[in-house]
Amino acid sequence: MNCCQCQGIEQVFDDKRAREELEEYRKKGVKRTTRMLLGAVETAVSHPNSLLDIGGGVGGIQHALADKTERIVNVDASSAYLALAQEEARRLGYADKVAYRHGNFVDIAPELEPVDVVTLDRVICCYHDMEGLVSASVAKAKRLYAVVYPRDVWWLRLLRPLATFGLWAARNPFRIFVHSQTAVDALIRQQGFQQRYRETAGMWQVVVYQK
Ligand SMILES: C[S@@+](CC[C@H](N)C(=O)[O-])C[C@H]1O[C@@H](n2cnc3c(N)ncnc32)[C@H](O)[C@@H]1O
Prior knowledge:
alpha/beta, Rossmann fold, 7-stranded mixed β-sheet, binds S-adenosylmethionine
């Protein structure tokens, strides 16, 4: 992966952080917003044939849906997260139904088949080319497209330069983004999706679209 942001992703989402998150997941389960996303997905499609989880982290969505899903693809730009998601899937006994792909989803997308459900949980905010990421990922969804991403509010836009300064000072090329909600929503609807669920929790919005 030669994009600057992807190099930053490997630095930020490293083995130490991945192990801490896996420990937290084992103790407490998925985060509140992930629970909200899973609830809305399972209400809309109880047994998806196939799932594409982009930037799945330690794999909370995959672990929750594995029993009900035939085939899973996990694409992650962080090799540490991908390895731990696989380790946990092995422990839970379902790793053989998952294809693990390391890299930038935007680069890998042309090689992937469409699936029933596509999820991006707190991923859009980690990538500079929102249009490229959202368009390419919606194009892979046959039934549902589910996202958790930051609300487009002034106080988050105000905090972003502080986060950027901290990362710059630490010589980390990773950046955080607050993308326009109107632009994200328009890209998804352009490909024939309707909003089925939307809730907010703190800085996050959980949105599920159905075709
Ligand atoms: C904040 S973490 C979220 C992890 C998990 N989804 C969760 O909510 O706990 C962002 C994840 O997105 C991945 N990511 C960001 N941009 C990506 C891209 N363009 N292609 C693949 N993975 C990406 C990162 O490697 C990381 O695993």
